[in-house]
Amino acid sequence: MMKPSLRTRSIGTKVSEEEYAQMERAAQMAAKTLGEWCREVMLTSANGQPAKATRTAMSSMCSWPRWWPLGAILLNVLFKQATGNR
């Protein structure tokens, strides 16, 4: 049986707060960690394949403005509850 190759190299980049939030939402929608999602998108692009993860993320991002206010309210409620406020 062949051993899988270990991931020993890393790639770093700087992004804005908004870009980070967009990528984080896309990863959550794909039910992946941010690192897994980024790896999949980069490898898919490097292999010249259509970016399934990117398409999924972009289609979900298009609906973001519609439900953003509800999400903001929910986050505010959860934050206040977590910090012990009413």
Strand and helix layout:
Elements: H1 17-29, H2 34-46, H3 52-82
Helix pairs in contact: 1-2, 1-3
List its salient traits.
86 residues
For the CA atoms, what is the radius of gyration? 17 Å
Helix/sheet category: mainly alpha
The secondary-structure element order is HHH
Overall morphology: elongated
Structure, described:
This protein is an all-alpha fold and about 90 residues long. The chain contains 3 helices and no strands. The model has no long low-confidence stretch (mean pLDDT about 80). It has one domain (about 15-80). α1 (about 15-30) packs across α3 (about 50-80).
Give a brief description.
By secondary structure, this protein is mainly α. 66% of the residues lie in helices and 0% in strands. The chain is elongated.
